[in-house]
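User: I'm putting together a teaching handout on how multi-component assemblies are represented. Below are the sequence lines for each component of a complex, exactly as they appear in our records. Could you produce the 3D structure of the whole assembly as structure tokens, so the students can see both representations side by side? Please keep the chain order the same as the input.
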Amino acid sequence: MKALTQTSFLFDLDGTLLDSVYDHIAAWNSALRETGIDISAWRVHRRIGMSGGLFTAALIRELGHEIDEATQQRLSTLHSQYYNERSSSVRALPGAVKLLEYLTAQEIPWAIATSSHMKTAGPVLAKIGVDPAKHVVITRDLVKYAKPDPDLFIAAANALGVKMEDSCVVGDAVWDMLASKRGHALGIGFLSGGYGETELRQAGAYRVFEDPADMLAHIDEVGGRR
Amino acid sequence: MKALTQTSFLFDLDGTLLDSVYDHIAAWNSALRETGIDISAWRVHRRIGMSGGLFTAALIRELGHEIDEATQQRLSTLHSQYYNERSSSVRALPGAVKLLEYLTAQEIPWAIATSSHMKTAGPVLAKIGVDPAKHVVITRDLVKYAKPDPDLFIAAANALGVKMEDSCVVGDAVWDMLASKRGHALGIGFLSGGYGETELRQAGAYRVFEDPADMLAHIDEVGGRR
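Assistant: Of course. Below is the structure of the complete assembly, with chains in the same order as your input.
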């Protein structure tokens, strides 16, 4: 094995760079209620960041009966609509902009990989200074399977011209950590999406920070220098 | 020591019997934003269920500067206002009503002890079939110190005519579990407030269930028979 000193960082978006997890929970809860589906808020929380298809599949398993395709489509449309209504007030997490600026200044490759479609992720990227025309942003539109499959992160690594196994996946959800393991990357967990530290560690995180500001303060611990 | 076969149950309200934690997060977030205080949503989540005074004190420590008393008062008023706007759509958690009915039918003493004031808790008690005129409900108005101090639970045990050390404290938050330890009760944690299982165990839970329905399904494990 060749000496490996250069790490790339593949970031999740919601709950990792943006303080938007609780807005997604609220949007799903409104959508679920409007379609007459009764499910507790904490169960929605624990599924944020999953592919929307898997979210619905898990829901069906939990409810014990089918949700027809029209209702599935309506759920997805309502979630996007309610989230977009809220997203103008979504803020960057502390340190998100500075962390990306630091990596760029150090010429350390980074990219964003999100289970969201561009119609949902697009309007909020500017809040963290990210321009999809200049930076690598992989959304649900570009791959067949979203998290916890590793395809989004593999596509992000490919677009950077690096290997996923030489990268760190940075995310707030168990789904990011599972995708990280599947792609042989190292997982860095953030508490900023509302998961507990042990949940992230048990899903494979090799290091856990509070949020982007905390990671930037400890960047030397995870290979963040050129 | 006398043989001990009778346990009493002292319940937290929000996130334990009511699916209301995410509504409290939303209400606090709106209140904080309106008073110009910038704090991430997950940090608010992790403080729900604490006394409002301690919530503000922790906030001050985190922000590193004082919040004047007028702002503290305004925060509290705005939170109550925003929560009460949402609380008409708050629902009982699965099994909440059945669990309380079961305990009543078995003549097992139970009570509710919440860090909320009656003006916030009052309007939602009917959703779980609780009438403060008939059942023991201890709110913030009745004690000097709220959770994680054990006073609310001690007052609830006293009102039932039982000892806190012969009771189980049932709650979704780390603050319930800490208060339980302080009062020498056994803590039962629920995942329905969005904490991870390990967080609850590390704070002292001797048993963790998903929600009231899950506890009722396993009631024989925790002394729920006469």
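A couple of points students might notice: The beta strands of chain B are 8-11, 110-113, 137-138, 167-171, 186-190, 205-209. Chain B has a mean pLDDT of 93.
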